[in-house]
Amino acid sequence: METEKLVELLGAEHVSDAPDALADYAKDHSFAPVREPWSVVRPHSLEQVQEVIKYAAAAKTPLVPVSSGPPRFRGDTVPSYGGIMLDMSGMNRIRMIDRKDRVAMIEPGVRFGQLQDALRAEGLRLPMPLCPRSTKSVVGSCLEREPHIMPRYHLDHSDPLLCNEVVFGTGDIFRTGEAGGPGSIEEQQAAGRRQKIAMGIQMNVNRILQGSQGAFGVVTWSTVRCEVLPKRQKPFLAAGADLPKLMDLAYWLVRLRLGDEIFILNNVNFALLFGGDRNIRQLQETLPRWILFFCLSGLEYFPEERIEQQEKDMAEIAKNLGVPIAESVCGISAREVLSIATAPSHEPYWKLEWGGGCQDLPFICSFEQAPALVQVMRDAAAADNFPLDDLGIYIQPVCQGHGHHVEFSLFHEAGNQRKREKTKALYLSAARALMESGAFFSRPYDLLADMVFNRDAASRDALRKLKNIFDPHNILNPGKLCF
User: Locate the FAD-binding PCMH-type domain: which residues (predicted)?
Assistant: First the structure.
């Protein structure tokens, strides 16, 4: 009956309840329990999204939005109670690119590769996360506050997201920030406005949309802030066993705006991501424990002179800190690292090449906390007899160096149930130990949601009040976060 009603609303080509289609959404690489949806809907317009949400609200049917393709990792798109999967991947138009204002308007189905190719033709680029999977939605990444690898252009955790068009759980359409009016989007753009100002007349609705895992509304387009494509780039590597010293170098590079892309990986992640056809285990053993990557850039005017001056300043800082700078490490050039890190991942996704399974544990912390929290994780892994050779670590300065995103990747054999359970046990025990040591889990997924929100009753109650306003029937992704 439900499928028939959806077909009546949208047409048979947009609706499916075939077993194979439902199985694609029943599970992912997380520890979320397996559960099939009842049907899958693939809208292609704002009106269709609104129709589906209104129907779900009237029928009290759970609705789970998803925009990225498989493989998925976080459990946020695995239905908790069945219901309808609202697959937004068919809405994949790039609606507008403006070189002068450095902004693009995109739909949820747009992938990083698609957008970067279009931006490159206009002399622009989008700050993007570290080597995202090829099926990752740009809008989905921004809504989840995934950090990008250019802290120089990372002014706020919401960046590079600007304005959104969203359909709330009531079926009402809302446009955030400058996009709210006056005038329609077409009238605004005809007048020269480009929906760049994220803050609206009153509250910034983006703050409740980001990190909500689709529990407040469904976004149908977003604008994102882009940056000028550099004329010349010169990448470098610094490696060693002393993490605090490398973090000091990264701190000064970010503080003095020397370089665009900057991040730190441990030898496990570095070998997996940049090893290519090499023997990954051997490369991992050969590499130093920590590798810092950074890239100097020269823009449109005087690019050579700009890089030359930046390189002098960088060399002086590195010398004062006692950190040697190189253009390659263990046969892997900085150019190769730049090329791979700033593009979508090849297939299979690089995190699945080890054993086919990966569980990420991301959080944010201060500069001073990061090394100690890394040690907390290593101690937890050792206590659970989890091989440190299977523990990937990624450290990303955010908000122009005012904080750090730290992400642990627990690699395991996907088909080995014993090792999967061992990984799950470490995932939970390490999260608890990290939380008690000061890690802030701003994006708690699947099993961590209860652990996080049970520690903060005030935030939980405030979120539930907002949920009652924007999704009073609790149809949007119920069972996630604290709903």
Answer: 31-229
In b/e form, how buried is each residue of 221-256, taking b as 16+ CB within 10 angstroms?
A: bbbbbbbebbbebbbbbbbbeebebbbbbbbbbbee
Q: What is the mean pLDDT of the chain?
A: 95
Are 446 and 359 contacting, i.e. CB atoms less than 8 angstroms apart?
Answer: no
Tell me the per-residue pLDDT of 267-279, one tens digit each, with 9 for 90 and over: 999 999 999 888 8
Q: Which residue, among 117, 108, 167, has the nearest Cα to 137 in the 3D structure?
A: 108
Q: What is the pLDDT of residues 38-56, one digit of tens each?
A: 999 999 999 999 999 999 9
| Rounded CA separation 348/413 (Å) | 15
pLDDT of residue 200: 73
Is the per-residue pLDDT at 449 higher than 70? Answer: yes
Verdict on whether the full-model pTM lies above 0.85 = yes
335-362 pLDDT per residue, tens: 999 999 999 999 999 999 988 999 999 9
Number of other residues whose CB lies within 10 A of the CB of residue 474? 17
d(CA 201, CA 131) in angstroms, rounded, equals 36
Provide, rounded to the nearest whole percent, the portion of the chain with pLDDT above 70: 99
- Number of neighbours of residue 353 by Cβ within 10 angstroms: 16
| Domains by residue range for the chain, with CATH | 94-228 (3.30.465.10), 232-342 (3.30.70.3450), 354-443 (3.30.70.380)
Checking 111-119 for CB contacts under 8 A at 24+ apart, the result is 111/135, 111/136, 111/137, 111/138, 111/344, 112/136, 112/138, 112/141, 112/344, 113/343, 113/344, 116/343, 118/94, 119/226, 119/229
